[in-house]
């Protein structure tokens, strides 16, 4: 072994040899020494080998493997033993093969015999199964025959009993005393009811058959008369039995004996199935609905006096009543579930009765539909107690009744469509709802207008206002009020909420909303148009006052002074009416903005559009109607603004006529320095315009403001030009005119009207014709040839026009103008 765990055959063999031949090495060494000393080398240097004799002699003397003989004998013995062992093993193997072959043959033979036995056993089982099946079929047939025979026997027995019972009922008319104990035994009432029902059906069927098939047979006629007696007696007995069951059920219900109640209900349901499923059934007729009576309903909802004007009180009353009904039905549902075999059918009938009888009775007293033809007078409270009150009561009742339907659905009502039934209670009211809503809005508007008119009359007749200003102040009390328009919108919002409540279909909702919104448009349009017309009336009155005090030039001083005083009063009235109209315009714009989309409330955008959009064309049609409704107000506003311009220009012309002096523009040449201040007339006119137009700047906005100021600026320019054409100017007067034009131009610059500014700038240029020397006129308008024609008119107003012969000079300079 060289290393632990490594095995070497060489090492094993070496160890074995060293153990068996211990002297082999020593002998080998001695032989080597002898060979080295005794051999002689050959001349060529090779070693001389010993001869065979020599080696034999040496071998005899000392054997090379002394143990070989022992090993050979050992090997021979082992070989013999191995051969014997192989022969024995071969013999045993041969014997085993023979035994295995023999056993295998026997086993195969046994298996073949077993297979034959199993096959025969299967055949036996198959024959046995067929036999069993045949026997079973025979037994089943026998059983069927026996069952059929038993059924026939039972039927025959029952038929015999029924015939016996039928003969008892056929004994004599109205005699129920001779009946079997079965029909009077309370413990067998279910069996008696079943038999009576069978006898009744058989007798009625026989009477019908006899009546059809037999017309003159005497025996059959007798039989028919006999069965008719039986039918009459059976009818009487069924009625008596029904009354007994109802009495037992009622007594048990008073004692809350659910078992007895269930038994009676079961018998009744089996005996009278058609009546049980119908509304006036005897079974449901005895259900004790433990709710208040009709008078208590009315007091609970309508109050002690029978009438409640507040919808909130009615809502509370209905809520309390419906809660009581729901609680009662919930209690009855527990009883019905425990008593009746078909509780869903009974609950359906119970809930239907509650809605059609109890709820309908309350709604009929609560909702008295007013007439659409004969409207109640306002002074009798017809508005609130009839039209609007009716609509508010209708909404309250509808909401609470729908909530009651949902509560009853949660309690349980079988297959009854309780929501549809509750909806049908309001069908009559919903059919004419839209007309009532529009009539209500019209009544509200009429009442509001009468209220405002009465307030205006009271204020105008108070006596604290001077007669000269009475008309303008009276009209101011009838000014357009944004608060009133907001109230219109509030009415409309309330009406729209009811439209949403009563209209489940989008098309119906859109139609109702459109009709209600059209009422709002008509109301707002009429209200602001009337307000603008009243404001225009004050402008017209002021214009009439101005025309009244226009006199000719040749009047006495006293008359002129009186006329001037009256003109001042007319001017004050005109200014007041101007301010009133501007306030009306401002409030008109605010009112329209509330309805349209420009105000923060955005009523149309947030409320109406959302309801109209689902229906094609409804939104566009409403927008068109809105524009059409406001067109009358726009026309009145336009006419009024034109009157405002006329009023302003009339006062401007009056101030210019009264304040402008001929010496303003033709001051004497007294050597004093020229006056560079604007004339008194200019100062008065600018002050007046600044004061009066402050209301216009506040009231108008956007394009309306721009158009108004532009028109006023053009009229002012034209009026000033016509006014100045009446005067004669010298150079110092031309300077004052230029100063006036500058003052007017600075004022109109606040109009933000470029065309007006341009006109006054050109006017300032033309005023230079009064300042420059005659020889400089030709070069004055070289940059602006378009105003030469107007400039010629001004040149004719020069003081030296004739003396300087300017007409001839202008003809030679501007031949086209001549």
UniProtKB/TrEMBL annotation:
Keywords: Coiled coil, Exocytosis, Transport. It holds the Pfam family Sec10_HB. This is Exocyst complex component Sec10-like. The keyword Metal-binding does not apply. Residues 191-809 form the Exocyst complex component Sec10-like alpha-helical bundle domain. One of its GO terms (biological process) is exocytosis. Residues 69-185 form the Exocyst complex component Sec10 N-terminal domain. It comes from Dillenia turbinata. The keyword Coiled coil applies. It comes from the Eukaryota. Residues 28-51 are annotated as: Disordered. Belongs to the SEC10 family. One of its GO terms (cellular component) is exocyst.
């Amino acid at each position: 072994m060289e290393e632990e765990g490594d095995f070497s055959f060489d090492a094993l063999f070496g160890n074995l040899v060293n153990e068996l031949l211990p002297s082999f090495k020593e002998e080998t060494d001695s032989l080597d020494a002898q060979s080295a000393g005794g051999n002689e080398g050959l001349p060529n240097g090779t070693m001389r080998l010993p001869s065979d004799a020599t080696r034999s002699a040496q071998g005899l003397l000392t054997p090379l493997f002394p143990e070989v003989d022992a090993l050979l004998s050992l090997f021979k013995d082992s070989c013999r033993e191995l051969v014997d062992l192989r022969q024995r093993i071969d013999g045993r193997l041969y014997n085993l093969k023979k035994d295995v072959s023999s056993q295998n043959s026997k086993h195969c033979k046994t298996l073949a015999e077993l297979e034959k036995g199993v096959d025969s056993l299967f055949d036996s089982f198959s024959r046995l199964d067929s036999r069993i099946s045949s026997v079973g079929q025979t037994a089943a047939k026998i059983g069927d025959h026996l069952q059929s025979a038993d059924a026939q026997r039972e039927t025959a027995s029952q038929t015999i009993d029924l015939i016996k019972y039928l003969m008892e009922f056929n004994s004599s008319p109205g005699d129920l005393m001779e009946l079997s104990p079965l029909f009077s035994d309370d413990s067998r009432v279910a069996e008696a009811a079943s038999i009576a029902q069978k006898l009744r059906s058989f007798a009625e069927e026989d009477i019908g058959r006899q009546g059809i098939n037999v017309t003159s047979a005497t025996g059959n006629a007798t039989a028919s008369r006999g069965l008719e007696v039986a039918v009459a007696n059976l009818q009487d007995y069924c009625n008596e039995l029904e009354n007994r069951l109802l009495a037992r059920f009622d007594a048990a219900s008073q004692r809350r004996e659910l078992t007895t109640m269930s038994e009676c209900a079961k018998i009744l349901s089996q005996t009278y199935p058609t009546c049980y499923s119908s509304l006036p059934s005897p079974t449901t007729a005895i259900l004790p609905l433990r709710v208040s009576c009709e008078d208590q309903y009315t007091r609970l909802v309508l109050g002690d006096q029978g009438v409640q004007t507040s919808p909130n009180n009615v809502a509370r009353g209905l809520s309390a009543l419906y809660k009581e009904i729901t609680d009662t039905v919930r209690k009855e549902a527990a009883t019905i579930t425990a008593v009746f075999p078909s509780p869903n059918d009974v609950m359906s009938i119970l809930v239907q009765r509650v809605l059609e009888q109890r709820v309908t009775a309350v709604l009929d007293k609560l909702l008295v539909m007013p007439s659409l033809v004969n409207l109640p007078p306002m002074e009798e409270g017809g508005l609130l107690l009839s039209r609007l009150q009716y609509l508010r009561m209708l909404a309250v009742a509808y909401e609470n009744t729908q909530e009651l339907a949902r509560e009853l659905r949660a309690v349980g009502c079988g297959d009854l469509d309780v929501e549809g039934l509750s909806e049908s209670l309001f069908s009559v009211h919903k059919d004419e709802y839209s007309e009532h809503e529009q009539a209500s809005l019209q009544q509200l508007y009429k009442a509001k207008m009468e209220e405002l008119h009465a307030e205006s009359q009271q204020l105008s007749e108070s006596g604290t206002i001077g007669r000269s200003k009475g008309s303008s102040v009276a009209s101011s009390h009838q000014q357009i009020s944004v608060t009133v328009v907001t109230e219109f919108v509030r009415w409309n919002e309330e009406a729209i909420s009811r439209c949403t409540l009563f209209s489940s279909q989008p098309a119906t909702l859109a139609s109702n909303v459109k009709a209600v919104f059209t009422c709002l448009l008509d109301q707002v349009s009429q209200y602001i148009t009337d307000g603008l017309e009243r404001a225009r009336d004050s402008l017209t009155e002021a214009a009439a006052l101005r025309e009244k005090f226009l006199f000719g030039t040749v009047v006495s001083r006293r008359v002129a002074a009186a006329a001037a005083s009256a003109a001042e009063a007319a001017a004050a009235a005109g200014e007041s009416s101007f301010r009133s109209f501007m306030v009306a315009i401002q409030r008109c714009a605010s009112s329209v903005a509330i309805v349209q989309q420009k105000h923060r409330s955005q009523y149309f955008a947030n409320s109406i559009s959302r309801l109209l959009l689902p229906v094609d064309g409804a939104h566009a049609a409403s927008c068109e109607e809105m524009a059409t409704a406001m067109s009358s107000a726009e026309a009145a506003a336009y006419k009024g603004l034109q009157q405002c311009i006329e009023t302003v220009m009339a006062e401007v012309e009056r101030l210019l006529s009264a304040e402008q002096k001929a010496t303003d523009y033709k001051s004497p040449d007294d050597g004093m320095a020229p006056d560079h201040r604007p004339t008194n007339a200019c100062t008065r006119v600018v002050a007046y315009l600044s004061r009066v137009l402050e209301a216009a700047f506040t009231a108008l906005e956007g394009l309306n403001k721009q158009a108004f100021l532009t028109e006023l600026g053009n009229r002012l320019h034209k009026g000033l030009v016509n006014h100045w054409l009446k005067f004669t100017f010298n150079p110092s007067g031309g300077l004052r005119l230029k100063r006036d034009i500058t003052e007017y131009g600075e004022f109109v610059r606040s109009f933000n009207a470029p065309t007006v500014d341009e006109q006054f700038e050109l006017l300032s240029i033309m005023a230079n014709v009064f300042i420059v020397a005659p020889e400089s006129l030709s070069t004055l308008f070289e940059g602006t040839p378009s105003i030469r024609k107007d400039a010629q008119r001004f040149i004719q107003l020069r003081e030296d026009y004739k003396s300087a012969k300017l007409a001839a000079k202008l003809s030679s300079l501007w031949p086209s103008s001549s």
